[in-house]
Amino acid sequence: MFFCPFPGCGRVFSTLWGLKQHFRREHRPWLWRRCPVCGQRKRLTVPRRPFRYGSVIKHIVFREDSAHQAVAYLILRSDGVSNRSLYRSRRDLARRMFSRPRQFAFDPFDGGDV
Ligand SMILES: [Zn+2]
Ligand SMILES: [Zn+2]
Predict the structure, then answer these.
(1) Ligand 1 centroid to 113 CA: how many Å?
(2) Which of 19, 69, 88, 90 could form a disulfide with 13 if both were Cys (CB 3.0 to 4.6 A apart)?
(3) Position 91 in a domain
(4) Is residue 32 assigned to a domain?
């Protein structure tokens, strides 16, 4: 069983793939305003411009600790994966991480004072 880590969600899936599909569809990581793992907020690039697209996703993907990499598995599209071994190692981390009920420490839609 795999448990959705999104705050307040609590849905359970029989496969990791099912969780991933649910996660991208329901929790729309491209709209996140902060990292759910460490609380890092999106930064403004240019004053009064909208937040830069995908910067939270980029932050998560480039952090190398297992908590961020497990989330990277959930939020990245799986088509066009160029690095198979990286994909597999993220998937293994995610399998371990989400087979127990746990919730993110931060609500990614809570932008705080930004
Ligand atoms: Zn969920
Ligand atoms: Zn983070």
Answers:
(1) 25
(2) 19
(3) yes
(4) yes
